[in-house]
Amino acid sequence: MDRLPNSAPLATKLRNTLVQYHSIGDSEWRVAKKTKDATVWRKPSEEFSGYLYKAQGVVEDVTNRIVDHIRPGPYRLDWDSLMTTMDIMETFEENCCVMRYTTAGQLWNIIAPREFVDFSYTTSYEDGLLTCGISLDYGEVRPNFVRGFNHPCGWFCVPLKDYPSHSLLTGYIQTELRGMLPQSAVDTAMSSTLANFYSDLKKALKT
């Protein structure tokens, strides 16, 4: 079991990595899925052998409320159908924490339930917020779960200039599910999961 990293340099590095992803030109992305709520693109990840996914859609709510539903906290379990448990293991200052969470099986359980331990950090970005995370090799792996690994991931949420009560939500996700899985199944699951994330979030914000 590794020791916990120093939170401040990790938070800075994570933020800088996400800002770098956010500046990747449109020509590098390929559309993976499009729904009425969001568009999902992908490009080969530079962190591992899978893809870096980008998801984007407009959400009818203010930035702070949207991010409160996404970042670690009481709201997330209520609406995110993929997440089955979540525990905050450690809390640092400045909106940093380490959380352990589990996800449900996907694609008729071809993808078995997974467990993740992530460092999470929320900070300001332009007129909005960025909430981002990266997995840590920390804590014992619980039985009946495969331990997955999130390479740098995050969500940028900024108010629309002409409609400040609406926000543009852009996510960057690159999850290494690990275990013996066909890559095609992982790619199908990731695109659908990200599109569903938007529709589930929108429903939750309306209640």
Quick overview:
This protein has helices at residues 7-22, 63-70, 74-79, 183-206, and strands at residues 30-34, 39-44, 51-59, 83-92, 96-103, 114-125, 128-135, 146-147, 149-150, 153-159, 167-173, 175-176. With 207 residues, it is α+β, with helices and mostly antiparallel strands. The chain has one domain (28-205): START domain (Alpha-D-Glucose-1,6-Bisphosphate, Chain A, domain 4), CATH 3.30.530.
Characterize the structure shown.
One of its GO terms (molecular function) is cholesterol binding. This protein has 207 residues and is of the alpha+beta class. It has one domain (28-205): Alpha-D-Glucose-1,6-Bisphosphate, Chain A, domain 4 (2-Layer Sandwich), CATH 3.30.530.20. It has helices at 7-22, 63-70, 74-79, 183-206; strands at 30-34, 39-44, 51-59, 83-92, 96-103, 114-125, 128-135, 146-147, 149-150, 153-159, 167-173, 175-176. The strands form two sheets. Strands 1, 2, 3, 4, 5, 6, 7, 8, 10 and 11 form a ten-stranded mixed β-sheet that branches. The longest helix has 24 residues, at 183-206. 34% of the residues are buried.
Gross CATH architecture: 2-Layer Sandwich
**Annotated CATH topology:** Alpha-D-Glucose-1,6-Bisphosphate, Chain A, domain 4
Shape: globular
Radius of gyration, rounded?
16 Å
Number of folding domains?
A: 1
Question: Stretches where pLDDT falls below 50 for ≥5 residues?
Answer: none
> Which series of helices and strands comes N to C?
HEEEHHEEEEEEEEEH
Distance between the termini: 41 Å
Helix content: 25-40%
- Assembly state here? single chain
User: What count of helical segments does DSSP give?
Assistant: 4
Beta-strand percentage?
A: 35-45%
Main beta-sheet strand count, sense and barrel state: 10 strands, mixed
Can you count the beta strands?
12
Residue-averaged pLDDT, rounded? 92
The structure class reads alpha+beta
CATH superfamily: START domain
CATH class: Alpha Beta
GO molecular function, one term: cholesterol transfer activity
Protein name: STAR4 protein
Pfam families: START
Organism: Lophotis ruficrista
